[in-house]
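Can anyone check this?
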Amino acid sequence: MKYLLLAVYAAMLVVIALYTAKRNKTLNDFFLGGRNMGAWMSAFAYGTSYFSAVIFIGYAGKIGWGFGLAAVWIGIGNALIGSLLAWLVLGKRTRVITHRLNVATMPDFFEKRFNSRGLKILSAIIIFLFLVPYSASVYQGLSYLFEEVFNIPFLYCILGMAILTGVYLVIGGYLATAISDFVQGTIMLIGIVMVIFFVVRSPEVGGLSEGLSRLAQIDGKLVSASGPPGWAQLLSLVFLTSLGSWGLPQMLHKFYAIRDEQAIRRGTVISTLFAIAVAGGAYFIGVFGRLFLSGVPVDPATGAANFDMIMPQVLATALNNVDALIGIVVVLVLSASMSTLSSLVLVSSSAISMDLVSGIMMPGMGEKKVHALMRILCGVFVVLSVMLAVFKLSTIVTLMSLSWGTISGAFLGPFVWGLYMKRATRAGAWAGMLAGLGTSIALNLFAPEMGAPMAGCFAMAASLVVTPLVSLVTKPLPAITVKPVLEKVS
């Protein structure tokens, strides 16, 4: 049964890709779906891009093991800050201002908002380089689950997912991802409710109150408000995974493509409820990992303890190895991951094809050639991500934190202040981007004991603080270029 469910899911993606292929007549259609996405599709696209195997396998396992019940705070932060506040603060303004500037990508926004080709080049390079670790972390999460459930070697799992991602995205583009995201989001909601039910009802947990009591017997701090690591580590994870989404191009891309302001208002509610269910549920089931395992599993390939293997083993035990139930969970995690992967691949390939090649190196390049190049680069990005995932250089949490912290650290200040602050200058944007980028790289290289999540938090804070401070003491951009763009958004 689990093989049948997997086959049906893969076939669905191919059918959607073939159906939408005929609608991708222009580059705008392929990358933005014609800027005509409704509330439900946009909200589900945002949510399914936000949550992937990284949260279900990596974060739920490692953070749940380390923090206990306090891990749920991260899910709450994702819903309130990463979804609700992000839509309220950025949704309408991003859509309106990107329309006024006639931009389709974040590097294009930086160039036209700050009149700087250099910012466009740097941001495009950052996107392509640092989205690779994030994509690799998603592949790792999927592969650990498939290896546990189907006994398929890690390498074959990754290659299979890579081929499916490449075919489905190259053929269908953003419209295919938006339609499939709606279907996949529905699967995720059904699946997370089912998983919570079976985990809590399992003999290892014995019900909610009994499960919490058993955790307290292991370590009383596992049921405390902050968990054993304490508030500093917990808040760094909340800050990184919640506010960090505000500076990620694959998330903001959804606001570029949404149809109108009414869709944004409805999408805000839908996206928030989706995040509460999925993020809150994922961290909640991770809380009980210690009740299923006596210790962190050892990866036979490396001989080292591997937190990424916790959730696959927990799920297999909780579902009692029933094929139909395991098949649903596999499709749940696969659904979350495929939508994230497609968003990452689409945004990263656009950074090179649209922003660097067509925008800088070959400005006269025809749209058909750009379109073809983007499809090729989708494949290149997938290959690079697979190569990084195969070597298992780090845990899922570390890879994802490095990616989010560096990209959002570089972009958060220039983007947010660029939307709201008329006085934001080119020098301020450069200073904020370099401060965030430099902080993340320096701390990860020279203070690894701090951890990638904390390094990402300092990088984002640096970007948010430096951008306006430098803007206030440097020459402003001509009012004639800024005022029409940032005038009141009704």
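Reply from J.R.: I decoded it. The mean pLDDT is 82.
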